Amino acid sequence: MLMNTLEKLRAGQLAGCRHLKLTCGLKTFPREVFALADTLEILDLSGNELSALPDDLPRLNRLRILFCSANRFTELPAVLGKCPQLSMIGFRANRIGSVPAAALPANLRWLILSDNRVEELPAGLGRCAQLQKLMLAGNRLSDLPPEMAACTRLELLRIAANRFSTLPEFLFSLPRLAWLAYAGNPLGEEGGGAVNEVPIASIAWDEVKLSGKLGEGASGVIHEAQWQSGTGALPVAVKLFKGTLTSDGLPHHEMHACIRAGAHPQLIPVLGRIDSHPENLDGLVMALIDRGFANLAGPPSFESCTRDVYAGDARFSPQAVRYIALGVASAVRHLHAQGILHGDLYAHNILYATDGEVLLGDFGAASFLPRRDRALADALQRIEVRAFACLLEELLERCTPVVDAETITKTLSALQAACARETPAERPLFAEIEQRLSVLNP
User: Fold this and answer.
1) Which residues contact 398 (CB under 8 A, 6 or more apart)?
2) Which of 265, 287, 309 is the last residue of a domain?
């Protein structure tokens, strides 16, 4: 019988390891971990029954990343703030109601507190100058500390499924904020929190026959299927939603955003909504995408934090960059016109074909724009423009020089700079971005 990881640790067989994962019903922190103090960088204790960490945790002097999700913590441990190298903390799905300022380490870049009971965050969060990613979906927050206006490196913020009646004003002056999700708050129509029903065809569960699984994410599973429609069997994709909170928000908001988005050449067509599922699961029937499409990039890594990871040999001609940018800008302009903020505009959510065609997907972080407050809607859209600037920057970094296309490259670079302006109000909206790309000669 193979020894489990804890037995190997106790037997001294993991000496020198840098990444340790222990999921074995732990109720107390295993002291044997300290034998790895000189090498351990990533410690994952998720899925146990822990409620405290030892006071001497800083002995793990090389520890950069700590995951303690799905445990029994009621407070973010203050000892975390004493860990000299700690930059990423994940305590999702605990029972945390208290977040002391002392728990925030000086080098904090990425904090995950989704699915807890947090009602208030400390003003000390504003001192986290390196903070880039803050994930707070599924808590009891009604505000954020105004001191967070000093978090000028913050790029991704998830506050969906909380208790916000208004969005904090300082969010609209943060120079780098690019990915924002806030659906599922009592913001109302003026604040962009309302979810309105949109007419869509109902497709009976017994009309679809599932075959292979195409993929699975936090919000649901996508299957290849056959839909027995009135015109015969049609190959489709069926997404069945899990119904549980994700790090981005609630899956039923994703489903409503997909429906509300409507038709656009750069969006995956939604054909109907599943009706009469035997387990009452929500689901969508969508067009089956040609297998020639692939993700433009992979999601961010621990090291890149907020930036996607591309294949090492990924290269794009200036014409391809322009074509991708135009397709994405057109899709996002359409979404904004439909009252939707995508919230996760990333290359890893873009499908790309070798002929340059693109499809924008994954509405898991989508939120709803206010229909009556134009100034607020524009300010929210300009946050998403910053995300587009990051995407365009990444594509241009991988753009192969072409002598006859120097004008295209210079124009794209100028557009990228405009979209990345640190004063959000100076950024163009997507209608202008699409127009500037449309008139650019290929």
Assistant:
1) 310, 314, 315, 316
2) 287
Q: Tell me 171's DSSP state.
A: G
Average of per-residue pLDDT across 311-317: 93
Domain count, the chain: 3
Per DSSP, the residues of 23-65 read -S--SS--GGGGGGTTT--EEE--SS------TTGGG-TT--E
Give the pLDDT confidence score for residue 192 in this predicted structure.
47
Q: How far apart are CA 57 and CA 46, in angstroms?
A: 16
Count Cβ atoms below 10 Å from residue 140 Cβ, excluding itself. Answer: 13
Going from the C-alpha of 306 to that of each of 302, 315, 345, 391, 421, the distances in angstroms are: 9, 21, 11, 11, 18
Rounded mean pLDDT, 145-155: 98
Kindly give, in sequence order, each residue whose CB lies less than 8 Å from that of residue 364, ignoring residues fewer than 6 positions away. Answer: 217, 218, 219, 246, 248, 249, 251, 254, 344
Integer Cα distance of 122 and 277 in angstroms? 44
Judgement on whether residues 434 and 301 belong to the same structural domain of the protein: yes
* Percent above pLDDT 70 for the chain: 97
Domain range holding 121?
5-154
Contacts 24+ apart (CB under 8 A), 304-307: 305/109, 305/110, 305/132, 305/133, 306/132, 306/133, 306/155, 306/156, 306/178, 306/179, 306/390, 307/390, 307/394
pTM (global) more than 0.70: yes
Confidence (pLDDT) at 50? 98
Whether 94 and 228 map to the same domain: the answer is no
The residue-averaged pLDDT of 250-265 equals 92
Which residues make Cβ contacts (< 8 Å) with residue 113, sequence separation at least 6? 76, 91, 92, 96, 99, 135, 136, 139
